[in-house]
Amino acid sequence: MSELINGILYEKRHDIIINNMSDGIYYYFDYDERSFQVNMDFQHFHSFYEIHILLAKSASHLVEGIPYTIHAGDIVLLRPSLLHKTIYPQGAPSRRLIINFLYPQEYLDSHPAFSRILEPFGQDIPIFRFDQEKTAILSDMLNQVFLLSTRSMPADILNTMVHAEFTRFLYRLWELRSFNVYVPEKFESPLSEKIYQITSYIHNHYSEELSLESLAEQFYISTYYLSHRFRQVTGYTLIHYIQMTRIRSAQYALINTREKITDISAACGFTSFSQFNRVFRKFCGVSPSDFRRDPVTSSFPTHSA
């Protein structure tokens, strides 16, 4: 039985699947709930676009190592290869709508307007919050997709109609992007802010030589304090985090390019191919060449979003 939650039609475990990822244009609408007990252990990334709309009171989203507090109705936009995870609070399960979608490159090449309306996914802070009127406009468009999925119609007609309605949603989101009022909340402490500045730096400079000593010097912090506080704030050692970020980027290149594996290794900051192969196996359980032949959807072992 569907209900209206914060303006969004919702039914637990309701989903809409249009095609498979290998079939071309692909959509997956997932209406469900998640609790604190199934928070992801690791950040992960996808080879497709993802939209996360929170229907509960609040949660947190970690994007490229930076934490953001989100509230009901906030729209989190995640482009392919963006490292992220959702952190749900303790208490009752949090309801949310997740939309995964993918357009083949040849489709984007022949429909250049899509590159324009996907621009909001490239924002530095990929979270959008609108006033009540604009939120209602966007919610109504998504509700049309929900209603389409409850009607009896041929699959090809449903596919066409969902694509048309969701395209309208993406266009309106692009049109309203300048009205975004989301402002990140302040960090708990200046030191936490510095640690997240370092995680952001790692995501932007993973191809370069990075070490505890060099980062401590650059950010004016002792090596001991950086090592201790980095793990306390992020849950990872500094070296583990650097390796995880590099492997994420290598996975994306293995899936989406035909570059030589040795070139990918060097571009991701590994000093030797043997080191790359060893670290890749540690994180992924397979060699880079086996991963390229049979890539997995998520980068690291994790619970569902």
Kindly describe this structure.
Helices cover 42% and strands 19% of the residues. It is globular, with a radius of gyration of 20 Å. With 305 residues, it is α+β, with helices and mostly antiparallel strands.
Overall average pLDDT: 89
Number of helices: 11
For the biggest β-sheet, the strand order reads 3-4-10-5-8-11
Q: What is the alpha-carbon Rg in Å?
A: 20 Å
Task: Compose a concise summary of this entry.
This protein is 42% helix and 19% strand. It has a 6-stranded antiparallel β-sheet, covered by helices on one side. Strands 7-6-9 form a 3-stranded antiparallel β-sheet. Strands 1-2 form a two-stranded antiparallel sheet. Helix 3 packs antiparallel against helix 4 and helix 5 crosses helix 7.
Reconstruct the topology from this structure:
Blueprint: E1 3-5, E2 8-10, E3 14-18, E4 26-34, E5 49-54, E6 58-63, E7 66-71, E8 75-78, E9 84-87, E10 94-102, H1 105-110, H2 113-117, E11 127-128, H3 132-149, H4 155-175, H5 190-205, H6 212-218, H7 223-234, H8 238-256, H9 261-267, H10 273-284, H11 288-293
Antiparallel strand pairs: 1-2, 3-4, 4-10, 5-8, 5-10, 6-7, 6-9, 8-11
